[in-house]
Design brief:
Elements: H1 5-13, H2 18-28, H3 34-37, H4 45-48, H5 53-63, H6 66-79, H7 83-99, H8 118-121, H9 133-147, E1 149-151, E2 160-162, H10 163-166, E3 172-174, H11 185-192, E4 221-225, H12 232-244, E5 254-257, H13 260-263, E6 270-271, H14 273-280, H15 284-287, E7 297-301, E8 326-327, H16 328-336, E9 345-350, E10 365-369, H17 374-384, H18 389-401, H19 403-408, H20 412-427, H21 438-457, H22 469-485, E11 489-491, H23 492-497, H24 502-507, E12 513-514, E13 527-529, H25 533-551, H26 560-569, H27 574-587, H28 594-602, H29 606-611, H30 623-639, H31 643-655, H32 660-671, H33 681-693, E14 700-701, H34 710-715, H35 717-721, E15 725-726
Parallel strand pairs: 4-9, 4-10, 5-7, 7-9, 14-15
Antiparallel strand pairs: 1-2, 3-10, 6-8, 11-13, 12-13
Helix pairs in contact: 1-5, 1-7, 6-7, 9-12, 17-18, 18-20, 20-21, 22-25, 25-28, 27-28, 27-30, 28-31, 30-31, 30-33, 31-33, 32-33
Length: about 725
């Protein structure tokens, strides 16, 4: 292995094609690029014009220190999309340091290139209080190290990938849908997937602060909405990385991401705004950058829906001084109200239901992340399996066979879950059923993650039971309690309440993963969440199901006396259990139990119980029980006037593998006799479900084809809503 910086760099340049070498040298000559931002001088054009690889290495090491040579080389390699070479160069350099024979011998103990926490990037903050160029470069260097490599789904050491390698452009629109989401977010995704393209303006992630043609207003605050897992945080990461690499938004001098989950930890203390930023990015106070009015700042607040601050815009006192100490809530409301740092840019991301916490007059532009459209779904899988085209094609084909799975793939996290499960099943050529609905997919994902945990930490083969029953129940209990409380993030105290040891939880990172970054200096306490809210809902359903099956406890019963009665007489009534679940979900005003109900009912199928063997004490559910449950759901469909509620009940029937009502309506549609019979309420609901879940996009909907009655018009309102126009 090369033992000096020149040898390492030469070995790297030897792997570049001639065109890439030409681009590499082009960056070395730029007077307005990142080399100048480092406070260094570029190499003159005449010196590089006829330089071969050896000459290029010589010129760089003669002009710059070995440390700067490596920094510059890594930056250029990433800039010309040679991320693998950059990673190899960085790794070889680190190995050389660890062996004691590497390039450090020639550097007079210079600091390492690869840094992991912010202090190491700002060991010597600039002494000047007006010139922030040195701090600007150090901030960019830190953000590049932080956001270049990301963990897809699970932050697990060794599984990081370059963001640019897996990033698939998301569909983002200006203005958003204007719709206030009152039901479950999955229903919003299912409805949005049916809408044809309207006259909405799509926008690139890097352009959110740019005005559209014909609009002259200045954009100071952007509010980006989107359902959980749709790609808001990844969009933030991409924006920051492109800025740090010098590829976009270079008019901004400093970007400071301040996530709400970590700000929550400061809510009981008083800080100055500069002090808060300094907690995240050491050296801000000493740099004096906030004293220079010519600097352009961007503060990014990711995850408004996870904010546990009151955000009292009406009653909070005024604060215009960045050095004045007060509560975090007061600082944030004044920043958003333009009283504090009025010229600074703000970017706030939020799930749609929580976005109304920000007064409309404080927001200049609203954008909505819609996730993946159909071509982007395929692009994701092809990127994910770039070295196995056959696997990508198999997965895409299978996803398309299930309408419910294909719709859910609008959510990038669900694409990751599907890829994880289907790669495992298809590559091993198992004889079992490939998942066709949500409960099957999540059950397989649950099993896969548990097996991965055993292989990683215990070296156990697949034949050995992979469940730690006690720990699984604790994690599932946490999911259920937090779902009831409406929380997506939780803290160490929440884990302790469920009897979960923090170290144990980290072993189960596949289902309960840390999102608290190690470099944060706010608190030693860590923040936890499930990979996606749908996983939390699935685990909550598992907890309720296992509590009933194994302990005769109906956690959904209305009174404690009912639970005690069940336990006392050791009676198990699956039908009553399911009725409680259906009734409770229907009583929810915001539909927050809709997906939970689908999972809970789906777990009653023997195929899913087989996957959970080892957790179940016994499998004694009779098919007649599910038949009675199906009858009860159909009764509720007939009784319930709400089309939205009925649509979710049809999804529940789908999880129970009952398609009778849908098949009946499809038969009417095929025969052309739909308008002849007087449809029952259940048949009307089935018609709406069929129209909304068909593969055909709803552009112009001809109401006359289906009904001329007032009742028919009311029943078909969800279809009209999902269409561009109705006749």
């Amino acid at each position: 292995m090369a033992s000096s910086v020149p040898e390492l760099l030469l070995a790297t340049l030897n792997q570049l094609a001639d065109d890439d070498l030409k681009r590499f040298k082009w960056y070395l000559k730029q007077h307005d690029g990142f080399i100048s931002q480092m406070g260094l001088s570029p190499i003159s054009k005449s010196q590089l014009e006829k330089a071969d690889r050896e000459d290029t290495v010589d010129k760089m090491t003669e002009t710059y220190s070995y440390v700067d040579t490596l920094k510059i080389s890594l930056e250029i390699l990433r800039g010309i999309n040679q991320n693998n070479l950059a990673q190899k160069l960085k790794s070889d350099y680190k190995i050389g340091q660890q062996s004691g024979t590497g390039p450090d011998q020639h550097m007079h103990q210079a600091p390492a290139v690869v840094k992991t926490d912010y202090e190491k990037h700002v060991e010597k903050p600039p002494s000047s209080t007006t010139d922030g160029s040195a701090y600007h470069w150090k901030l960019k260097s830190y953000l590049k190290d932080t956001y270049t490599n990301v963990f897809e789904g699970i932050p697990e050491a060794g599984n990081s990938v370059d963001l640019n390698e897996i990033y698939t452009e998301l569909y983002i629109t200006e203005g958003g849908s204007g719709e206030v989401i009152t039901g479950h977010e999955v229903r919003h995704i299912e409805t949005a997937s049916r809408r044809p393209a309207r006259s909405e303006i799509s926008i690139k992630c890097n352009d959110i602060f740019k005005t559209s043609t014909g609009r002259g207003k200045h954009i100071r605050t952007v509010l980006t909405k989107g359902v959980a897992g749709i790609g808001k945080t990844v969009s933030v990461q991409k924006f920051i990385l492109d800025w740090a690499r010098g590829n976009a938004n270079q008019d901004i001098h400093f970007i400071f991401p301040l996530p709400f989950p970590e700000l929550n930890l400061m809510k009981k203390e008083e800080h100055s705004f500069v002090g808060i930023v300094d907690h995240f990015f050491v050296g801000v106070k000493k740099s004096g950058i906030f004293k220079n009015n010519n600097f352009k700042f961007l503060f990014i607040f990711d995850g408004l829906d996870e904010c546990r601050l009151p955000l009292d815009f009406e009653n909070n006192k005024s604060c215009r001084d960045v050095t004045k100490s007060t509560s975090v809530d007061v600082l944030l409301t004044n920043l958003i109200h333009r009283k504090l740092l009025p010229s600074a840019l703000l970017w706030i991301t939020s799930r749609s239901a929580a976005a109304n916490q920000i007064p409309p007059e404080c927001v200049d532009q609203v954008t909505e992340v819609r996730g993946f459209n159909d071509p982007q779904k395929e692009e994701y899988f092809r990127k994910r399996f770039s070295d196995d085209e056959d696997m990508a094609c198999k997965i895409i084909t299978h996803i398309k066979t299930s309408r419910s799975l294909h719709i859910m793939c609008h959510i990038p996290v669900f694409c990751w879950i599907s890829a994880t499960v289907l790669e495992d099943l298809l590559s091993e050529k198992k004889t079992g059923e490939i998942p066709k609905n949500l409960t099957e997919m999540y059950s397989q994902f649950f099993v896969f993650q548990s097996r991965q945990k055993n292989r990683k930490y215990h070296g156990q083969a697949k034949t050995v039971s992979h469940w730690n029953k006690e720990m699984i129940m604790k994690i599932c209990k946490l999911a259920f309690q937090q779902l009831q409380n409406g929380n997506l993030i939780f803290y160490k105290s929440d884990l302790k309440e469920c009897g979960i040891d923090v170290t144990e939880a980290s072993v189960y990172s596949g289902v309960c993963t840390q999102i608290f970054r190690q470099e944060t200096r706010i608190s030693k306490e860590k923040v936890y969440c499930f990979v996606h809210v749908s996983i939390q809902e699935f685990l909550a359903a598992v907890y309720v199901f296992l509590s009933f099956n194994n302990r005769n406890r109906n956690l959904l019963s209305k009174t404690l006396s009912t639970r005690r009665l069940l336990t006392q007489f050791r009676t198990k009534s699956t039908i009553e259990f399911h009725k409680h679940a259906v009734d409770k979900a229907l009583q929810s005003k915001n539909g927050h139990l809709d997906l939970f109900l689908r999972f809970l009912l789906g777990l009653s199928l023997e195929s899913n119980q087989i996957l959970l063997r080892g957790l179940l004490n016994e499998r004694t559910r009779r098919s007649e029980d599910n038949e009675e449950t199906v009858k009860y759901i159909k009764e509720k469909i007939r009784e319930n006037p709400s089309p939205e509620r009925c649509i979710n009940l049809f999804h529940c029937l789908n999880e129970l593998n009952d398609h009778s009502l849908v098949e009946e309506i499809q038969s009417f549609l095929r025969s052309g006799s739909l308008s002849k019979p007087n449809l029952s309420p259940a048949q009307w609901s089935a018609l709406v479900f069929v129209l909304l879940t068909s593969e055909k996009k709803l552009d112009v909907f001809d109401l006359k084809k289906y009904s001329r009655s007032e009742e028919g018009l009311l029943r078909l309102l969800p279809v009209v809503k999902a269409s561009r126009a109705a006749l």
